[in-house]
Design brief:
Elements (H helix, E strand, L loop, with lengths): L3 E5 L12 H13 L4 E4 L11 H15 L5 E4 L5 H14 L3 E5 L8 H14 L4 E5 L1 H4 L5 H7 L5 E6 L4 H9 L6 E4 L5 H6 L4 E4 L6 H12 L3 H17 L7 H9 L19 H10 L4
Parallel strand pairs: 1-2, 1-8, 2-3, 3-4, 4-5, 5-6, 6-7, 7-8
Helix pairs in contact: 1-2, 2-3, 3-4, 4-6, 9-10, 10-12, 11-12
């Protein structure tokens, strides 16, 4: 089981919106060398919603090549069409991904039975370890713990990224007592408390800009060292907030550009970070000793 800090890697783009594979390789190497436990390629933070299928697969394939087996690569392959999710997951497997991360179907608001059948269908169609991803703020769909428990019985569904953002949900999921089923936080602000409560790690936006500090904080929390985890998390707290000043990945891409790690390219309908938030993000970078 993967534990600790997993980076939800951005897909760097040039000013014209073209994918910048050279910058992608640089960011991938930086994350691995800083101690990330795994890389999520082309998830929400990787702008999966605006990449076409060929681009999506190319980013996964190139990330796998740069990683070269040093850590697992988990490909974002979710869709609100079950057939499309199966297609993307099969393409990710062909591209060399070690696992897939599938968000709950967005917009069409399936009931819990629909969620169960959707994820089971993808798992049965593609022989690849698969992680569920619950993020109701983006999908208008909340996968309840009882549905997670049902899906955990499907052999190649191996974990969950939970981004509801409440510790009550964290405690509900831990209380299920699911053996060999990974639980990851998708809410940077509550990662430390979630791990100390029984989660196994995080799939993190903050880890893009502060990969080493996030890895150390999560490692301390996984080890049960609450004091060290709190000390390290205090240095990250401003980032956890500032990187969500506007919808993800707008602030994190601006922060990476400010650090000189990539250009500030982003695709419509997202736009560059509003200048009103620039100093907030800069201050957060300074608080983490990154700028």
């Amino acid at each position: 089981m993967i534990t600790g800090s997993i980076v939800a890697l951005v897909t760097p783009m040039r000013e014209d919106g073209a994918v910048d594979h050279a910058a992608l390789a640089k960011l991938t190497d930086r994350a691995v060398e800083a101690g990330t436990a795994a890389i999520v390629s082309v998830g929400t933070t990787g702008e999966s919603a605006t990449l076409d299928v060929a681009e999506h697969t190319d980013v996964i394939r190139n990330t796998v090549q740069v990683v070269a087996g040093r850590v697992p690569v988990i490909a974002g392959t979710g869709a609100n069409s079950t057939a499309e999710a199966i297609h993307l997951t099969a393409a990710a497997k062909q591209a060399g991904a070690d696992a897939a991360l599938l968000v709950t179907p967005y917009y069409n608001k399936p009931p819990q039975e629909g969620l169960y059948r959707h994820f089971r269908a993808v798992a049965e169609a593609v022989d690849l370890p698969q992680y569920l991803y619950n993020v109701p703020a983006r999908t208008a769909c909340d996968m309840l713990p009882a549905t997670v428990e049902r899906l955990a019985a499907v052999p190649n569904i191996v974990g969950l990224k939970e981004a509801l953002g409440t510790l009550d949900r964290v405690r509900e999921l831990v209380a299920l007592g699911l053996d060999d089923f990974a639980l990851y936080s998708g809410d940077d602000a509550t990662v430390r408390e979630s791990i100390l409560a029984g989660f196994h790690g995080t799939i993190s936006v903050t880890a893009n800009v502060a990969p080493e500090l996030m890895a150390r904080m999560c490692a301390a929390a996984v080890a049960g060292d609450a004091a060290t985890a709190a000390e390290l998390d205090a240095k990250l707290a401003a980032l956890h907030s500032a990187l969500f000043a506007e919808p993800n990945p707008i602030p994190v891409k601006w922060a990476l550009a400010e650090l000189g790690l990539c250009e500030a390219g982003i695709r419509l309908p997202l736009v560059p970070l509003d200048p009103a938030h620039h100093e907030t993000v800069r201050a957060a970078l300074r608080s983490a000793a990154l700028l």
